Amino acid sequence: NFHLIDYNMLVFIVIILARRLVAAIVKE
């Protein structure tokens, strides 16, 4: 269960970082 939770958190963080990166590119 812990491994699954870590995996979900990792995916969640990656999605947030990707959205921030896209937002930064769009602003430029």
TrEMBL record:
Pfam families: Tmp39 (PF10271)
Record flagged with keyword Transmembrane: yes
Subcellular location per the Swiss-Prot or TrEMBL entry: Membrane
Signal peptide range: none
Keywords, in A-Z order: Membrane, Transmembrane, Transmembrane helix
Residue ranges crossing the lipid bilayer per the database entry: 7-26
Membrane-protein topology: Multi-pass membrane protein
UniProt KW Transmembrane keyword: yes
Entry GO CC: membrane
Family to which the UniProt record says this protein belongs: Belongs to the TMEM39 family.
Record's protein name: Transmembrane protein 39B
Gene name, Swiss-Prot/TrEMBL: TMEM39B
